[in-house]
Amino acid sequence: MLTEAKEERSTSEGQDRKRQSVRDHVKAKARGDLIITHKAAILDPAARERFEHLLAACEKDADEIACEGGEEASTEASGTEYSSVAYEVGYIRAYMEALPMLMATALARCDALEIAA
């Protein structure tokens, strides 16, 4: 009985680590894609710092949006054995869609503020 509980906990912890690893990979890929798209690697240090600051704020917002996307997907799949998988797929899909849009909006706002100033 105790051995089964240990095995179950170990399996659950392993799955959690895999999920987190996939999320980390997706976030790194999305971040890298934005850096390439906006040619942030060739910006001067001050502009690169502003870009990184905007990106960090957008990543935080994208994570919140992705959590909501995961919850929606999980709710749709509730009652099935796939609800946790649906959550992860929903999270990843929402994150990959939200981050580029949030960053484009943030950059457009910055450009508009610079023009207005």
UniProtKB/TrEMBL annotation:
This is Uncharacterized protein. It comes from Bradyrhizobium erythrophlei. Residues 1-25 are annotated as: Disordered.
